[in-house]
Amino acid sequence: MSLKLTNKERMLLQDQKSHEEICIQKYNDYANMASDPQLKALFQQNAQTEQEHLNTINQLLNGQIPNMNQGQSGGQQQNQSPMQILQQQSSQQLSQQQTNSFQGQNQSSGYQADQNLCTDMLMTEKYVSGTYDTAIFEFRDPQVRQILNHIQKEEQQHGEAIFNYMQSVGMYNPQ
């Protein structure tokens, strides 16, 4: 099926494309910079999902409706969400002693650097999720809205996984 985009729809998709490219770059860079192996893995998984988002946006820009049953990680029958991966890793790898040890490094540059990376990515995910919200309301085609909604949910899962990681190692304590 060929998709005819309005100028506004095309412009919104171009914006989302640039957001996805920035997310991919940040997650890959931050995975290389992170001190904690658990955080590295989380950033690497999120980068992969962001690449899938970029591929989907490119298909839409090319006038194609992507098949969401292939290649998209949000489907529970195929892959786990970053949040599920983090929860599994947390229960398998992070004992209370390791958490306390990492928190004890609070003054170390590695802990502080990881905290800064997480804070930046959490803010980025909040922003990107909001831009998807706007785009969803601007599209005429219900299939495209559903695709963008799917991507937005995965962006929210990324933010939630980062939040959960930060909370688990004492970087984020909501009052």
From TrEMBL:
Q: Which InterPro entries match?
A: Ferritin-like (IPR012347), Ferritin-like_SF (IPR009078), Spore_coat_CotF-like (IPR012851)
What's one Pfam family the UniProt record gives for this protein?
Answer: Coat_F
Q: What ranges does the record give for the region Disordered, renumbered to this chain?
A: 64-109
CDD domains (UniProt xref): Ferritin_like
The protein's UniProt keywords, in alphabetical order, are: Capsid protein, Virion
Q: Where is the composition biased (Low complexity)?
A: 66-109
Q: What Gene3D superfamilies does the database record attribute to this sequence?
A: 1.20.1260.10
Q: Please indicate which superkingdom the organism of origin belongs to.
A: Bacteria
Query: Can you name this protein?
Result: Spore coat protein
In its UniProt entry, the species of origin is given as: Capillibacterium thermochitinicola
Tell me the organism's taxonomic lineage.
Answer: Bacteria, Bacillati, Bacillota, Capillibacterium
